[in-house]
Structure formats: structure tokens, C-alpha cells
Amino acid sequence: MTKRLAGRVALITGGGTGIGAAAARRLVAEGSAVVLCGRRAEPLQALAEELGEEARAVAGDAADPEAVRRMVAQAIDSFGRLDMVVTGAGGHGLGTVSDTGDDAWRQSLDSNLTSAFVTVREALPSLRVRGGSVVVVSSLAGLFAGPAVAGYVTTKHALIGLTRSLARDYGKYGVRVNALCPGWVRTAMADEQMDVLAAARGFDRADAYALATKDTPLGRPAEPEEIAGIVAFLLSDDSAAMTGSVVVADCGAAAVDLPTLAFEDIE
């Protein structure tokens, strides 16, 4: 493993599980220190202990400005700087528009969009010091609409707009901001969705993943570690010419022309 992030410090929201945890492991392996942030203290602390002296855990809601200020302060107090941010915090926004009440709508906005907005806003003064880098974790749902997830689709689309606005306004200060759009990734959150599908179809989780990804070119979900490698690339100088970009990591799902699926088995 190269040490291309040696001496740098990253703040990762949603850092206790899934893509955030995989990204933390990868960044530490590449020489970075990390501040792990999330609403649940237990997984954050467990991962910080696993990663050792180069990791700190701060529990809090990434949509809460006071909590994010504590996260940024932890990075500065512990490691003397903050160079990188990964906005991995997020959650579901289930239901059609008709089925989404005001409280559910606000919850989706806070968990997916406001969390990223607040985190980057509070980190910007530090990122501008040396020219930092941000990865905004959106989703394939930021480009396409799935069924009955209006809040999730809307907020994940909005994250791409946030990415481009940040890139436009802060590039002159040396701050780069790119969006990452994963498709299905084998995480706890995806497992929950697969269990719903499995229960509806009468089979197990593995079969649900197989069904959900059968029409993608690679025919499988991504692993968190694969997404973490892309995060590390986008944060590193290897992507120095990239900002405002939307990087898709979906095992080829977005390359498929859906109306042609009916012709798949014609010889």
C-alpha cells in the first residue's frame, strides 16, 4: 500500500460502518489520520481502537452545526490540521411523494443533504489553509430514480448540485470537491433492503443481491473496500485535475440501456 496520503488528516461522517468504515481503514493504510464521526458511539469507538493512534471517534449528528464543530476541533486538537472530508452520513427517504409526511421529508433532508452541507461548511476554513479535498458520497440514486424512495432520490440528486457549487466557488482556494455515486454495495444498509426483497420473493439475502444485480455488466454488488479505493484516489494528488466531477461506481449498472433488456436472451 502506498503512503500517498501521509501526513494528512481526514474527517469521515458515517464513519463507523459500511463505506465510511472501509474508507477510514483505507485512508489510514495510505498514511492518513482520521476522525470518525457518526450518531452511534459504539461502532465509532470500536473502529478507532482497531485503527490505533491515527484515529479518533466523535459521536454526533452531522446535520448539527455544533456537533460538526466538535468534529473539526477534534481533528485540529489531535492532529493539528484538517485536509480531507468524506461526507458518508446518510439514510433512507422511503415512500412516494404522496406517502412522505413532513417529518419524514425533513429527516431525509437532514440525514442525506444537510449533513453534507453542514459538514463541508464547517470544515472549509481548515480546508482552505493548504488546499483540501472533499468526497461527497451521493448514490446511483443521485442520477436515476428508484421506486418509492422520493426523499432519498431527491436528496442524493441535490448532493451533486452541492458538489458542483462547492467546486465552482472554492476551487480558487485550492479546494477540490467531487461526488461519488455508488450503486449497490454490500453494506448493512443494503443488507436491510435485500432482506425486504428476499422476504417478498421467498428466498435468501444472497439470492436477493443476485437478483438486484443480474442485469449489471459485472453481475454483482460492489464491496465497501472497492468504493474505499475510489475515495482514496479522489482525495489524493492522483486526482489533482478533478473537481466538480461525478464518479460512478456501480459495477456497470448505469451503462445498461433498460429498454433493451427485453432482447437479452434473443439469439
Describe the model:
- With 267 residues, the chain is of the alpha/beta class.
- 46% of the residues lie in helices and 13% in strands.
- The protein has eight helices and seven strands, in the order E-H-E-H-E-H-E-H-E-H-E-H-H-H-E.
- It has helices at 18-29, 41-51, 65-79, 102-130, 150-170, 188-201, 205-213, 224-235, and strands at residues 9-13, 33-38, 55-59, 84-87, 133-137, 176-182, 246-249.
- It has a seven-stranded parallel sheet with strand order 3-2-1-4-5-6-7, sandwiched between helices.
- The model has no long low-confidence stretch (mean pLDDT 96).
Write the layout of secondary structure elements.
Elements: E1 9-13, H1 18-29, E2 33-38, H2 41-51, E3 55-59, H3 65-79, E4 84-87, H4 102-130, E5 133-137, H5 150-170, E6 176-182, H6 188-201, H7 205-213, H8 224-235, E7 246-249
Parallel strand pairs: 1-2, 1-4, 2-3, 4-5, 5-6, 6-7
Q: What labels would you give this structure?
A:
267 residues; alpha/beta; Rossmann fold; seven-stranded parallel beta sheet; 8 helices; 46% helix
At the fold tier of CATH, the topology name is Rossmann fold
Q: What is the chain-wise order of helices and strands?
A: EHEHEHEHEHEHHHE
The biggest beta sheet is recorded as: 7 strands, parallel
| Order of the strands making up the biggest sheet | 3-2-1-4-5-6-7
Q: Can you count the helices?
A: 8
Oligomer: single chain
* Helical residues, percent: 40-55%
Distance N to C terminus:
45 Å
Q: How much beta, percentage-wise?
A: 5-15%
Based on CA atoms alone, the radius of gyration comes out at 18 Å
The 3D shape can be described as globular
Number of strands: 7
**Given this structure, which CATH class is correct?**
Alpha Beta
User: What class do helices, strands and sheet pairing give?
Assistant: alpha/beta
User: Which regions are unreliable across 5 or more consecutive residues at pLDDT < 50?
Assistant: none
Number of domains: 1
What's the rounded overall pLDDT mean? 96
Please identify, by name, the CATH architecture: 3-Layer(aba) Sandwich
Fourth-level CATH superfamily: NAD(P)-binding Rossmann-like Domain
